Amino acid sequence: MARKLLIVIFIFTLAALSLLAIRQEQINTVHTMTVLHQQIARQETSLDALRFAIEEECSVESLGLFLATEVAKHE
């Protein structure tokens, strides 16, 4: 009887260890995903700043001022 009890305890211990290993893999995956999402958010912020700068440089006012300056240089 004691032998069967030890076998059952051993099997449950192995099952618990495998579940803990799976849980740790899930935690590591979520951590990696979080880091990637943070990097994506930083890149999106940088892209937004670049889009704003491009929009500002290509605005009608900026292009008109640039053309007026170029025309004045060539006259």
What does this structure look like?
This protein has 75 residues and is mostly helical. 95% of the residues lie in helices and 0% in strands. The protein contains 2 helices and no strands. The radius of gyration is 32 Å and the shape is rod-shaped. 0% of the residues are buried. The model has no long low-confidence stretch (mean pLDDT 92).
Structural class: mainly alpha
Number of strands: 0
Rg for CA atoms:
32 Å
Give the helix level as a range of percent. Answer: over 70%
Distance between the termini: 107 Å
Proportion of beta-strand residues? under 5%
Question: What is the total number of structural domains?
Answer: 1
Unreliable parts: none
Write the H/E string, N to C. Answer: HH
List keywords for this structure.
mainly alpha, 75 residues
Structure in a nutshell:
The protein is mostly helical and 75 residues long.
What's the topology here?
Layout: H1 2-57, H2 60-74
